[in-house]
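Thread: Newbie trying to understand structure tokens

Hi all, I'm a second-year student working on a class project, and my supervisor (Dr. K.) asked me to get a predicted structure for one chain before our next meeting. I've only ever worked with sequences, so writing a 3D structure as a token string is new to me. If someone could post the tokens and maybe explain what I'm looking at, I'd be very grateful. Here's the chain:
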Amino acid sequence: MSREGWKNFLHSVERSPALQRAVNSCSGMNEVVSLAQKNGYALRVEDLNHDAQAEAIAEWFKISTI
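---
Reply by user tm_fold:
Sure, no problem. This is what the structure looks like when written as tokens:
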């Protein structure tokens, strides 16, 4: 869900000057995730960390010769 939630949140940020200002005032990923949650998006820091790992594994399989 995090990837879909993240895409939806970024879509909203692109279209909302208020959300853009709020994101710009965040000092780190935890604050961005908290902002997203406060605005109804299903994001967790843990999900984003796992998503990055999953993406790295998928990339490895693309270039692997196994």
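A couple of things are worth pointing out once you decode it. Residues 45-63 form the longest helix (19 residues). The chain has a mean pLDDT of 83. Feel free to ask follow-ups in this thread.
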